[in-house]
Amino acid sequence: MTGTPRLPLLLVPAGLFVLAIYAWPTLLLLRNGFNEVGPTGAMVEAWSLKTAADTFADGFTFELTLNSLQLSLSATAIALALSYPLSLFLFRTESRFRGLLAVIAIMPMLISGVVRVFGWLAILGDRGLVNGLLQSLELISAPLRLVFNWTGVTIGLAESIMPYMILALLAGFGQLDRTLEEAARSLGASPWRTFWRVTLPLSLPALALAAGLGFILSMSAYITPKLLGGGRVFVLATEIFEQATTNTNWPVAAVLAIYTLGLLLLLLVASNLLARGLRR
To answer: What is the DSSP letter of 110?
Structure first.
């Protein structure tokens, strides 16, 4: 009892850490969104909504939002379709190499994103592994355009979020009960029917959690769209970087950054509510 009042004090270091590295920079970013850009291109301190109004009145902002949503949706769908069976296998296997297999599955997280992107450039390039193999088999006469376009970015982005989705699925598979599956099999259900009627419904909360995480990571990704897109793929993350560095337009970059952060928070809340509802 005497130690109970002191428990909240344990949150003070973590709270100060969050304020220092997240809350305070976010507030500064929000403040920059009220500034304007003068005739010379220099930032002028102000308390105005003109920058935000001009940014959202531009149709390019709406196009960037649609591009980001479509790219994130495609990459998340591909990554989820590949991660689900792999995660289910890792969760069910009784092999003594289970731990090693799990480490191999998430090993891309240990490699720099830039290195992985250059690896995809070597694989998907005009003279890369895929085109070289297809041409050697005489399946194509000319190289397929798999990089510096939406196709390459989608493939690279799906691969980059897969390890995170595998971890989320493994964490969410705790609700799977083998006794229910065995009961369905004993009542005459086929393996496929057991999967569709028992396994898949029980794993829906994990699927919602993994999909939400993958979607958010895809929306905020910059390296993959920038490098694999070759300057031809425009999303919110790449535009924020261009405005902040190339154009040195900090007010517009701040408005787009806060806008993207708001979208991500909405998606995160929706994902958690969906997972919670499916769990109930």
So the answer is: G
Distance CA 210, CA 167 (A): 8
Q: Is 122 helix (H, G, I), strand (E, B) or coil?
A: helix
**Half-sphere exposure (CA, 13 Å, Cβ side) for 31?**
7
Mapped onto helix, strand or coil, the DSSP state of residue 37 is strand
**How far is the C-alpha of 153 from the C-alpha of 156, rounded, in Å?**
5
CB 117 within 8 A of CB 148: no
Closest CA to 127 of 135, 118, 119, 115: 135
Chain CA centroid to CA 37, Å: 32
**Quick one: which of 85, 247, 59 has its CA closest to 169?**
85
Nearby residues of 74 by Cβ (< 8 Å), 6 or more positions away: 154, 158
Q: Where does the pLDDT of residue 4 fall: very low under 50, low under 70, confident under 90, or very high at 90 and above?
A: low
**Predicted confidence (pLDDT) per residue in 70-103, tens digit:** 999 999 999 999 999 999 999 988 888 888 998 9
- Is 0.85 topped by the overall pTM? yes
At what angle are helices 59-92 and 204-219 packed, to 10 degrees?
Answer: 140
